[in-house]
Amino acid sequence: MIIVSPENGYWTVWLRISSGFRALTNTPTPLPLSLKPRKLGVYLDYEEGPVSFYNVETRSHIFTFSDTFTEKIYPFFSPGLFEQKNEAPLIIYPVSDRD
């Protein structure tokens, strides 16, 4: 079983109907968001260590994890399931100076 946590290499935010929007820290951190983000931005500074999540549409900060990286890292995205199906498709947009 994989435990999703920064100690295991997962810097994660998730939205669950039962528990709301959370950052998966050692003890999950509730995120007081009134709107469910439809577009989520992820910023990683490999040398300095922060992994930050943003609401792209409102240009607002959601949460930042601080860490140090010594190995290659890989992105992992999952929209999860809602009533055993995906409510909306996962679309990954390229970074643009216009966004």
Automatic annotation (TrEMBL):
Gene3D superfamilies: 2.60.120.920. Pfam families: SPRY. Residues 1-95 form the B30.2/SPRY domain. PANTHER family: E3 UBIQUITIN-PROTEIN LIGASE TRIM (PTHR24103). This is E3 ubiquitin-protein ligase TRIM39. It comes from Acipenser ruthenus.
